[in-house]
Amino acid sequence: MSRLEGKVYEGKPMVLLSTSPGARGGASVMAAAEVSMPFFGATVKATMSVGGFYDVFDLEKGEVSDAETKAQLLEALTSFKD
Question: Is there a domain that residue 72 lies in?
């Protein structure tokens, strides 16, 4: 990002989420984002990478279908609210 003031997120809380059809769930991109977001002024409250997107998400219903993944997502979102 090209800005005079580099802290474009101004301390805003964030939950970083990534997913992919592969097993790692975008883990490499997540690692880069987790390191860089604070540099831009974000307060990272939680992160979550979900691998096997098509195995844990029901496209027809538009929701997470895997109970463990859903619980992890709710936990991440709860930490955002706190």
Answer: yes
DSSP letter at 6 equals: S
Round to whole Å and give the CA distance between 25 and 55: 12
CB 43 within 8 A of CB 12: yes
In a domain, 18, yes or no: yes
What tokens does 30 get? 């997540």
Q: Is 4 part of any domain?
A: no
Distance CA 15, CA 34 (A): 10
Q: Does any domain span residue 64? A: yes
| Average pLDDT, integer, range 62-81 | 94
Q: What are phi and psi of 10, to 5 degrees?
A: 50, 45
Q: Domain span at residue 30?
A: 13-76
Is the predicted pLDDT of residue 3 greater than 70, yes or no? no
Token pair in block for residue 70: 């859903």
